[in-house]
Amino acid sequence: MLRKLWSGLRPVLFWSHRRGSWQYDLIVAAILAFIFFTPRSLFNDQPRLPRVREVQTLSDEQRTRVFLVESSAMGEKTGEDLTAAIQDLLRRQTGRNLEVVETRPSSGADGELTAYLVYVRP
Q1: What whole-number distance in Å separates Cα of residue 68 and Cα of residue 51?
Q2: Coil, helix or strand for 43?
Q3: Which pTM does this prediction carry?
């Protein structure tokens, strides 16, 4: 019994069916069905949105707020391009037009840029 099972599974496991045979086509169809019909949630594979979160609201007269923006959301931008991109991202995330006052890069333990501390005013 076990020998019959192995003789049936061996060609499938080692992909030894000839191209164009019905067995080969069945294996290909099963692989394609798995790829296209398996839900993403089964693998916890969800698109990752750029991470922006408010860290703090300072108690000054301008009501300055501090946001943490992951560097991966900004790509290779620098200078005024970076400020404009952060301002646009904050507008999309918060729904408000915020003025970027200051941007400070924040590095991880290895010295690599990980995020920006962004100070904004309404």
Answers
A1: 8
A2: helix
A3: 0.54
